[in-house]
Amino acid sequence: MILALRKVPKLTVYFWIVKILTTGMGEAAADYLDHRLAPALAVVIAGVVLAVALLLQFATHRYNAWAYWFAVVMVSVFGTMAADGLHVELGIPYVVSSVFFAACLIVVFIVWQISEKTLSIHSINTRRREIFYWTAVMTTFALGTASGDMTATTLGLGYFSSGLLFAAIFAVPALAYWLFKLNPILAFWFAYIITRPLGASFADWMGVPHSLGGLGMGRGTVSLGLSALIFGFVWYLAATHKDVDRKQISANY
After folding, report:
1. CA 181 to CA 171: how far, in whole Å?
2. Which residue among 6, 101, 118, 250 is least crowded, i.e. fewest CB within 10 A of its CB?
3. Whole-model pTM?
4. Quick count: other Cβ atoms within 10 Å of Cβ 219?
5. Both ends of the chain: CA-CA distance in Å?
6. Poorest-confidence range of 14-28, 52-66, 139-153?
7. How far apart, in whole angstroms, are the C-alpha atoms of residue 50 and residue 61?
8. Is 28 exposed, middle or buried (0-12, 13-18, 19+ CB in 10 A)?
């Protein structure tokens, strides 16, 4: 099925800002819900809202900032719960779950490449490519959650140090792309994966109590604060269309 236009935003600085904010918000919100509700109930609620968000995203005929970022936020919340559930409920070490989700992501990319001959997000203009894209996005969030918790707890770096580590790693593909002409698709997905543990580590640092090395602001407060920032940025993007290609803007009017 050929879609009218691309279903993802143009890559701008706004994309990366909002993406990192969603990773932190998803981490804080998932942890807050897990501590306020029974874990199984929290997963069910998040899963239902995620399904609604994805249905809205798939129902659009072109990129819509509200639908797209709503889906990303819910993928972040649910992906956090999926990764944490393996550790907390099943006792699977973060190292093992990180390797597992990394393997899953590799499989997704291989199947996507074989099927579509490209992993570029600039080519998300068919239903099948859109499905591959969101499958990869979901997997990157689960992988990022597991790897971030692994560095912070298993390796004992703490949340703030983990955030600094992933901030440094996040800069690698950008510098490699600008200085050494790294393949743009590889650079994008490398950076995209790292945004998850980057945002989540700093969100955990702000939200967890002082006894755990955090600022003690509370997960609920962090979640609400980041939600407000996301809302503001998405409202701005929806109003200005700064993350939409010109041909898509023309098609809207």
Report:
1. 14
2. 250
3. 0.89
4. 23
5. 24
6. 139-153
7. 19
8. buried
Residue 2 phi/psi, 5-degree rounding, is -85, 130
Buried b (16+ CB within 10 A) or exposed e, 56-81: ebeebebbbbebbbbbbbbbbbbbbb
Distance CA 139, CA 59 (A): 22
Helix (H, G, I), strand (E, B) or coil at 8: coil
12, 33, 133, 156, 223 from 83: Cα distances, Å: 29, 15, 19, 19, 18
CB-CB contact of 25 with 227 (8 Å): yes
Gap between the Cα atoms of 190 and 186, Å rounded: 6
Q: How far, CA to CA in Å, does 161 sit from each of 31, 148, 166?
A: 20, 11, 9
Angle subtended by helix axes 39-59 and 13-36, to nearest 10 = 150
Tokens (6 digits) for 97: 């779950």
Give me the residues paired with residue 22 across strands.
none
> Do residues 206 and 214 lie in contact, with contact meaning Cβ atoms separated by under 8 Å?
yes
In 37-93, alpha helices (H): 39-59, 65-88
Contact 81, 142 (CB under 8 A): no
Cβ atoms 74, 23 nearer than 8 A: no
Rounded to an integer, what distance in angstroms lies between the CA atom of residue 173 and that of residue 192? 10
Q: Per mean pLDDT, which range of 13-17, 141-145, 154-158, 168-172 is the poorest?
A: 141-145
Q: 126 — phi, psi (to 5°)?
A: -130, 160
Classify the C-alpha dihedral 222-225-228-234 as positive or negative: negative
DSSP state of 126: B
